[in-house]
Design goal:
Blueprint (H helix, E strand, L loop, with lengths): L6 H13 L4 H4 L15 E4 L7 E2 L5 E2 L2 H4 L9 E4 L19 E5 L3 E6 L4 E9 L14 E4 L4 E6 L8 E9 L3 E8 L5 E3 L1 E6 L8 E4 L5 E4 L6 E8 L17 E2 L10 E5 L22 H4 L1 E5 L2 H4 L5 E6 L6 E7 L12 E5 L2 E7 L1 H5 L6 E7 L8 E8 L10 E2 L1 E7 L21 H33 L24 H5 L6 H12 L8 E2 L2 H7 L8 E4 L3 E7 L5 E7 L4 H16 L8 E5 L6 E5 L6 H5 L9 H21 L3 E3 L8 E3 L5 E3 L6 E3 L5 E2 L3 E2 L6 H6 L1 E2 L1 H17 L10 H4 L1 H10 L17 H14 L10 H17 L6 H5 L5 H4 L14 H11 L4 E2 L1
Parallel strand pairs: 14-24, 16-17, 28-32, 39-41
Antiparallel strand pairs: 1-13, 2-3, 4-5, 5-12, 6-11, 7-10, 7-13, 8-9, 8-11, 10-16, 14-15, 16-27, 18-19, 19-26, 20-25, 21-24, 21-27, 22-23, 22-25, 29-30, 30-31, 31-33, 32-33, 34-37, 35-36, 38-40
The chain binds 2-acetamido-2-deoxy-beta-D-glucopyranose (NAG) (9 copies).
Subcellular location: Membrane
Keywords: ATP-binding, Glycoprotein, Kinase, Membrane, Nucleotide-binding, Serine/threonine-protein kinase, Signal, Transferase, Transmembrane, Transmembrane helix
Membrane topology: Single-pass type I membrane protein
Length: 863
């Protein structure tokens, strides 16, 4: 649609419209909202200061100054231009030609446009202070208004030689739209280019989800002016106006993704994207073009880790404004429906709980979006944090995705997008004076209350001081934060998941931790220094309790620093348990604690850095070269020694409860170190305790699961799973495999029963395993996985058998291809087995019955 109205024809049209044929203008343009192409009814593109029209690479043609003087209220004609070379070293923009010319206004000037069909309009303004001998554009200070809204207030580009692009979305209800440039006194205004283009009605409705607890519905988007702050194509490249249905620019998300280690980009062909056209929810390519929906970010390695973290993006925004946030979703990662559920958080507020795209769209690869409004009171940091993360439900795949983000600033009570002055120059913001006085009063009052409280607390602690004397070497330790202290922390330990009996056990262990003082107490600031203020780049891993960072202490020692996430009861319990366990234990095959910090309600544990990381990464999923069979046996022996020590070495037996390959760490010499004691329990030897079931999927002892009776044999079962993970080098739960293979423990038992287990051996080492060693190893593993705990060996027996397997291996390591022969009779050893409880008899139907139990256990704490 070409618009070359001069002022006269504009006037005639206006008259016609108002008095005679009010609907012709509107109907003459069919802007079909439901298609992918949209012909705007309003399309004014002006390259200000240019004497010739300008065509951009995307095909849009901007009119010259002479063609557009009819829109202007002024007769002054100051044009500024530069050669394109002078702009060459600025950052590239596809709109670069528009910045090469500018128009200067020394007095108030208005552009007036005729709007045939009122509705939403894009207003796009281009600014760049071109160098000029007679006018110093950098020194100009001016405001830009519409009839009702302030777009820019006292704007200037001094000390800023970047290209400035401002984009607004306004609802215009009149047939006339004005854009006013108002220079400050004795200053001038300038503009390089203007776009006034209508936006389809479908683009934005009047309502959004209000993000402030409790969630509500916000109505009135039509009534506010919006300024586009960010438009981000998550997981994909920059989309330039030429590739967008509405000439928008979408940036790549790289600068905003604050946890890139956990993110994985996914993309599919644009053609796969489906736009739903059902009557209740319409998404068309006008909402966002298919390249936005065809790329996304999902959680790194979701099938293997049972990940427990959020994907996070942070954008900086201005305080004191509300923002509209649109999030685009399209499930291009799932293989079938009903697999993906995740939560959406905005600034830490749960905005959607368990978003189920399958339910919303009824199909995969289908475009979907949601609008949120976050009020200024919830933007305290000058930033908006957008997160998606798995729900805590027992789903078989934990994952979360995001395809696109749009963030728009909303006009405030003064109808302004820049400050608190309305179009007539009146100040309409919060009253500064009364606000200041209120602030002073509040600060004074809270100071008084805080000092009183402090005095009270110090007095009480001083009274209690003798109770703790033996435990704390530091005379002033009664001043330390609450939960660093001996018997007071017992009360913190109580947890709704723990039965009273186990609570007693936990409290007991705290009371008997005489060497707590031998661990160093770190100040939080030291740990901040050691980790570059918990730099996300230093994250080594993410666990159930929080993130683990690599840190370097002031003395140069490298440590692993585990920082608790949040103050949830669960995290606190794990922190205290782990601190108590590790304070008592020292063993070559247990990870050793250097110290801890619990200042500022931060819970941080500091460990020796174990440089080769988790055993699992050396088995599969990473690029490390495969470990030999001997090495794997050595590592298993080390881990078994660590566990054996836990079960029998200390005065009370300790059950680890979360034995898995990610909790076996390898130091620089590949010496195994058992880690993560957050779920450990102390019990009296030979006893069993009743407790809520905790552990990791795939490693969990079925008997413990059913009876909730915890014994050392539960660790033995998990260790059995580890043994097969070591042999087969695959994840214990792998939902991408067929159902019967998904669970490693069930599958190997079945394979073993049918004498097919040798086919599952890690092919990289299969030919270097001594068959005798293999036989001992597999028999041991199978026994560890016995259904009944009494049939399982003790950790001491496990250790002995592993050493036996190791001896057999090193006696004749290279046995070539004899392995497959050796396992024609894989099963015979079991038939001759003197153990009266045959393993095979309990194998059938385990998968079915177990998965049933899984879904019915309410209090299971998956990790
Ligand atoms: C506009 O387009 C729609 C669908 O393409 C069509 O049904 C309608 O008749 C058109 N209206 C006009 C005025 O051309
Ligand atoms: C471009 O870069 C050169 C050298 O870096 C600098 O001297 C010149 O001022 C720059 N030009 C502009 C327009 O910024
Ligand atoms: C233009 O104005 C800016 C800001 O007032 C000032 O820093 C700069 O030196 C001026 N440039 C010229 C060429 O006068
Ligand atoms: C220049 O302005 C742009 C856009 O407003 C802003 O992002 C940038 O930080 C500014 N640069 C300086 C040096 O002020
Ligand atoms: C916004 O637009 C709608 C129609 O698109 C109109 O009914 C309404 O009056 C407008 N509101 C304002 C405040 O301009
Ligand atoms: C944008 O469109 C051009 C052709 O019009 C195409 O070559 C290019 O790949 C497109 N880019 C994206 C990101 O889709
Ligand atoms: C503000 O920042 C602090 C530290 O940078 C962070 O702990 C807090 O969660 C942030 N608050 C919001 C609402 O983002
Ligand atoms: C994800 O973020 C939300 C809000 O910041 C937080 O409440 C939640 O615990 C986080 N989830 C994980 C697994 O870290
Ligand atoms: C969000 O703002 C509301 C008031 O609008 C306030 O009650 C609530 O505490 C805020 N939430 C957060 C997390 O800041």
């Amino acid at each position: 649609m070409k618009h070359s109205y001069n002022f006269f024809s504009l006037f005639i049209l206006l008259l016609l419209h108002l008095f005679f044929i009010p609907s012709t203008c509107v109907n003459s343009i069919n802007d079909s909202d439901f298609g992918s192409s949209f012909t705007p009814s309003v399309n004014y593109l002006i390259d200000c200061g240019s004497s010739l029209k300008t065509q951009l690479r995307d095909g849009r043609i901007f009119k010259s100054d002479p063609d557009t003087t009819s829109f202007l209220s002024t007769t002054e004609d100051i044009q500024i231009s530069v050669d394109s070379i002078n702009l060459a070293n600025l950052s590239y923009s596809p709109a670069l030609p528009l910045y090469e010319t500018a128009r200067v206004f020394t007095e108030d000037t208005t552009y007036s446009f005729y709007i045939p069909k009122p509705g939403r309009l894009w207003i796009r303004l281009y600014f760049f202070p071109l160098p000029n001998p007679s006018y110093n554009l950098s020194s100009f200070v001016f405001s830009v208004h519409t009839d009702r809204f302030v777009l820019l207030h006292e704007f200037s580009q001094s000390n800023n030689d970047s290209l400035v692009f401002k984009e607004y979305l306004l609802n215009v209800s009149d047939h006339r739209f004005s854009l006013k440039f108002k220079p400050r006194k004795s200053s001038s205004a300038f503009i390089n280019a203007i776009e006034i283009v209508s936006a389809p009605d479908i683009l934005l409705s009047d309502s959004a989800i209000q993000v402030s607890p409790p969630l509500g519905k916000f109505n009135g988007l039509m009534n506010s002016a919006l300024q586009v702050s960010y438009r981000i194509n998550v997981g994909g490249p920059t989309i330039t106006p030429g590739n967008d249905t509405l000439s928008r620019t979408w940036e790549s998300d790289d600068p905003y993704n604050i946890f890139p280690q956990g993110s994985k980009s996914v993309s599919v062909s644009n053609k796969r994207i489906i736009y739903p056209q059902t009557s209740d929810f319409i998404v068309t390519p006008l909402i966002a073009p298919s390249p936005i929906y065809a790329t996304c970010v999902e959680m790194e390695d979701p099938q293997v880790m049972q990940p427990n973290f959020n994907l996070s993006w942070m954008v900086n925004v201005e305080k004191k404004y509300s923002y509209l946030i649109r999030m685009h979703f399209c499930d291009i990662v799932s293989r079938r429906l009903d697999q993906l559920y995740f939560n959406v958080y905005i600034n830490g507020i749960e905005s959607v709980s368990a978003l189920d795209l399958s339910y919303e769209t009824k199909a995969l690869a289908t475009a979907y979006y949601m609008d949120f409004m976050i009020g200024s009171s919830n933007i305290t940091n000058g930033s908006i944090l957008i997160q998606v993360g798995p729900t805590n439900h027992k789903q078989d795949i934990s994952n979360a995705i995001l395809n696109g983000i749009e963030v728009m600033k909303m006009s405030n009570s003064a109808d302004s997008l820049d400050g608190f002055f309305s179009v007539d120059g009146e100040y309409k913001g919060p009253n500064l004076r009364t606000k200041l006085m209120k602030l002073v009063a509040i600060i004074g009052f809270s100071l008084a209350v805080i000092s009183l409280l402090l005095l009270g607390v110090m007095y009480v602690r001083w009274l209690r001081r003798p109770l703790c004397r033996e435990e704390s070497r530091n005379f002033f330790s009664w001043l330390l934060p609450l939960h660093s202290k001996c018997n007071i922390s017992c009360s913190i330990y109580s947890n709704k998941y723990d039965s009273p009996k186990s609570k007693h056990a936990g409290g007991h262990s705290i009371h008997h931790s005489p060497r707590r003082g031998s661990k160093r107490f770190f100040h939080f600031i030291e740990l901040q220094r050691a980790t570059g203020n918990f730099d996300e780049k230093k994250v080594l891993g993410v666990g159930g309790f929080g993130k683990v960072y690599l840190g370097t202490l002031d003395d140069g020692r490298r440590v692993a620093i585990k920082r608790g996430s949040g103050s949830s009861g669960q995290g606190m319990n794990e922190f205290i348990t782990e601190l108590n366990m590790l304070s008592k234990l020292r063993h070559r095959h247990l990870v050793s604690l250097v110290g801890f910090c619990d200042e500022n309600s931060e819970m941080v544990l500091v460990y020796d850095y174990v440089s080769n990381g988790p055993f699992r990464s050396h088995l599969y999923g990473s690029n490390f070269s495969p470990l030999s069979w001997e090495k794997r046996l050595e590592i298993c022996i080390g881990a078994a020694r660590g566990l054996h020590y836990l079960h029998t070495g200390a005065s009370q037996s300790i059950i680890h409860r979360d034995v898995k390959t990610t909790n076996i760490l390898l130091d620089e010499n590949y010496v195994a170190k058992v880690a993560d004691f957050g779920l450990s329990k102390t019990i009296h030897d030979k006893a069993q305790i009743s407790t809520a079931v905790k552990g990791s999927f795939g490693y969990l002892d079925p008997q413990y699961f059913k009876s909730q009776q915890l014994t050392q044999k539960s660790d033995v079962y998990s260790f059995g799973v580890v043994l097969f993970e070591v042999l087969c080098a695959r994840p214990v739960i792998c939902s991408t495999l067929p159902m019967e293979q998904a669970n490693l423990a069930d599958w190997v038992m079945k394979q073993h029963k049918f004498g097919m287990l040798h086919k599952a051996i890690d092919p990289r080492i299969a030919n270097n395993i001594n068959p005798e060693s293999y036989k001992v190893f597999v028999q041991l593993g199978v026994k560890c996985l016995s259904e009944l705990s009494v049939d399982r060996p003790s950790m001491g027996d496990v250790l002995w058998n592993l050493e036996h397997a190791y001896q057999l291996q090193i006696a004749s390591p290279h046995d070539g291809n004899s392995l497959s022969n050796a396992f024609q009779n894989e099963n015979e050893s079991d038939i001759n087995n003197d153990n009266s409880h045959g393993v095979a008899s309990v194998v059938p139907d385990r998968i079915g019955s177990d998965s049933l139990v899984f879904s019915q256990m309410d209090n299971f704490q998956g990790r």
